[in-house]
Amino acid sequence: MKHGPTEFCMGSSNLAGLDSLFLEDIPVKDPALRELRDLFVECTDICCPAEAWRTPLLSFGDVLLFDYSLFHRGGHNDSPDLRALIYNTYSRPWYKDPNFSMMDKEVHATESPLASFSETMQEMMRNVRLAIPNKIKPEDPNVLATIKLDDLEKLKQFRQRNNDFEEDYDYEDDDTFWEFVMSNVDVDIEGLEVCIRFTETETDCHPFDRGMDLTIATEAGTEVRVVAPDGREIKKITTEADQEQVIISSLNTKW
Predict the structure, then answer these.
(1) CA-to-CA distance for 109 and 224, rounded, in angstroms?
(2) Selection from 222, 223, 191 nearest residue 208 by Cα
(3) Torsions phi, psi of 44, nearest 5?
(4) Which of 71, 105, 247, 253 is least buried, going by the fewest C-beta atoms within 10 A?
(5) Residue 237: is its pLDDT beyond 50?
(6) Does residue 211 register a pLDDT over 80?
């Protein structure tokens, strides 16, 4: 790709453990960076920020900051082919996009929505440029919409678990019973029920409408079925000791 002479410096909004450390103690994963780290300590802030030398610990929702240098080793980069989702200058002279910059507009400080921010922050917010790739392929593993989601039962914080015991029965004294919650997120079938099979001849059924949370107390090994009025089985589980919350949704059922 013909970008001309460029230099990028990437960091993350989630650089764990750096804020409270001295520069000399900044951890690096690559031993080769130790020399650069020591050089940075000597040169103070004339180099790329030390926080960006460490491989960032990225998580969903983090913002990546790219340091884009217009002038580098005597060259000049005028390529418009930049692929970062969000990039702005970072510890360098500002990269001002003439198609986006507001610096030429004279706005009185009291009239500007950015007036409450510092000058540095105003500069950044005025000149940040957004860009997206030209093509997004459906099979691209980096595109969130194409990633296969896990069953919602595996997402422990999808909903707050409710394990309060019933007042009329002390399950704490009976270690054969486990209380858990079944939640219907978006399965919208009129007459949907949860049926608990206690014995060969004894089955207890309860309405299970969309958006409902149903508290169930059973022995481990009990068969619990979610069934439609026509007898179709939407979901079946066999309870376990210390059963966790069960989430029923269009993502993990057969309807």
Answers:
(1) 64
(2) 191
(3) 55, -125
(4) 105
(5) yes
(6) yes
What pLDDT was estimated at residue 35?
Answer: 73
CATH of the domain at 158: 2.60.40
**Together in a domain, 124 and 162:** no
C-alpha–C-alpha distance, residues 135 and 148, integer Å: 20
Judge contact between 10 and 63, C-beta under 8 A. no
Question: How far is Cα 39 from Cα 33, in angstroms, rounded to an integer?
Answer: 10
For residue 133, the Cα-to-chain-centroid distance in whole angstroms is 21
Q: What is the pTM of this model?
A: 0.34
In a domain? residue 76? yes
pLDDT (0 to 100) of residue 193? 93
Residue 194, strand partner residues: 206, 226
In degrees, rounded to 5, the angle at the alpha carbon of residue 56 between the alpha carbons of residues 18 and 141 is 160
Tally of domains in the chain? 2
Question: Which domain, by its residues, includes 230?
Answer: 152-248
Weakest mean pLDDT among 171-175, 208-212, 232-236: 171-175
Do 184 and 235 lie in one domain? The reply is yes
Tens of pLDDT, residues 185-205: 888 899 999 999 888 888 889
Output the CA angle 12-16-17, nearest 5 degrees: 135
Using the Cα atoms of residue 128, residue 7, residue 14 and residue 153 in order, give the sign of their dihedral.
Answer: positive
Residue type at position 60:
F
Task: For residues 86 and 51, give the distance between their C-alpha atoms in angstroms, rounded to a whole number.
Answer: 18
The predicted-structure confidence for 26-39, as pLDDT tens digits, reads as follows 666 666 667 766 76
- Six-digit token string for 130: 């957004």
Write out the two tokens for 246: 């069960």
Confirm whether 40 is domain-assigned.
no
Q: DSSP letters along 11-48, please? A: EES--TT-TTS-GGG---SSTTHHHHHHHHHHHGGGSS
Give how far the C-alpha of residue 39 lies from the chain's centroid of Cα atoms, to the nearest Å.
Answer: 35
